[in-house]
Target: Na+:solute symporter
Amino acid sequence: MNSLDWVVLVGYFGVMIAIGVWSHKRVDNVSDFFTAGGKMPWWLSGISHHMSGYSAVMFTGYAGIAYQYGVTSFVTWSLPIAIGIGIGAKLFAPRLNRLRSKLHVASPLEYLKNRYNIPTQQALAWSGLLLKIVDVGAKWAAIATLLSVFTGITLTQGILITGVITAIYCTIGGLWADALTELGQFIIQLFAGLAMLIAVMHKLDGFSTLWTVWDKLPSGHSHPTAGPYTVTFLLAFLFIKTFEYNGGMWNQAQRYMATDSARSATRSARLSSILWLVWPLVLFFPMWCAPLLVQAKKPDASDSYALMTEGLLPHGLLGLVIVGFFSHTMAMCSSDANAISAVFTRDIAPVLSKSARSWSERSGLIAARSSTLLFLGLSMAIATQVNSPTFKDIITVVIKWVAGLMGPIAIPFMLGMLRRFRKSGPTAALVSWAAGLVGFYIVNYTFTGSERDIALQWQVSVPLAISLVLYVLIGFIKPEDTPERDALILEINSGDGDGGAAAAAVPGARAGTGETVVTATDTRD
Model:
């Protein structure tokens, strides 16, 4: 990097902070901080939803997969995510929006205390919080590693720079700052990605590279599945990502909750699905061409994109692409921080402290910002331990951890909104959650070594499958539907204009509180 690249990088950080300061004026209470007061335009929500699903892993880990296996990087990663979000556009997005618009909750998990009970809510909240601290810590380490390669600063310095700047804008401006910075980051990445695509085509055969390069690439580079990324892995990944990217890890759920209506949430999901289908092709094509342009130094080829960037782009554009690396990771980390803060402030703190149950708007907002800082601080502290043997192990399996452990946390949360699963109550939720965690441990840490290794697709999908089967099965064996739970589910499933009808169908229901006294008569799927 030279002075021009540094100007681009410092300018980017300055704009992020400025957006956070501007967003501060739009945050008056906890609802504004966590769900943008339900005023976020559907198109901004969709772009934010899309951007919050990326990290620097795209330019390291998946760049390595693209270098080694070619098209399979798209077919077994972004394509199933696009399909999964498309499925959730009607199934989950509108229901998540109604959690805010009808039940008036500010945290995705807040409705669980009425849908199940407080122990279930706490089990899901604490397990998800601990998982996310490690997950985000690994992402800080990944982006700091890239920063170290390009600038020469130490890993700890890179973690502090990116973490502190993210903490400033997302703590000051809440979800508004997250979404607006993600919009800016999307625009930056648009130019950076196109610059890289044009540079690669210019280096090879010009525009015709799009169709002439395939005969020059290694054998099998155009195959949709290759190596460990089999058809079975693809189906397992689609299964997992349908839950994860439709709100199973909470931060994406907030984007749907932030729109003004269930219809807007559906439109937001469709936009995100289209972006996941189209935009990764622009990012991946240079990665597929990388074997013709650079020789990766690392065994997993995770350095291939960085090497190609340094070799092909002039200064200034190099800085823009580096900013693109930051944009994805900071988008994901800030959205995770806001989601975790919502869960801690709205779900965990009221159980731990009586005073938290009666916080004023000002006190609640202070707690929200404080918990955001606490989460970011803990994740940054873990990231600084990247050179320890323990963390080296964690960073190699963190993707597997998120995919494997997300299911037991997401199943009770997401299926609990659907009428079809109204009979599954606290017992089904807690047993499926606990059994999924045990299943994850068994398939990942019992059957290991020599001939007993289990394929990756089973390591990540078995815990979710166990949770799903038990959640449904126990609901049939031990149904725990009650009038109050039925009424709550009816409220979540009724249309935007049906709030009054839902309340009428459930005499005594108090719309927006989740508190009801008699059964709902409509239990259609």
About this structure: Confidence is low (pLDDT under 50) at residues 498-525. Residues 155-203 form the longest helix (49 residues). The two ends are 57 Å apart (CA to CA).
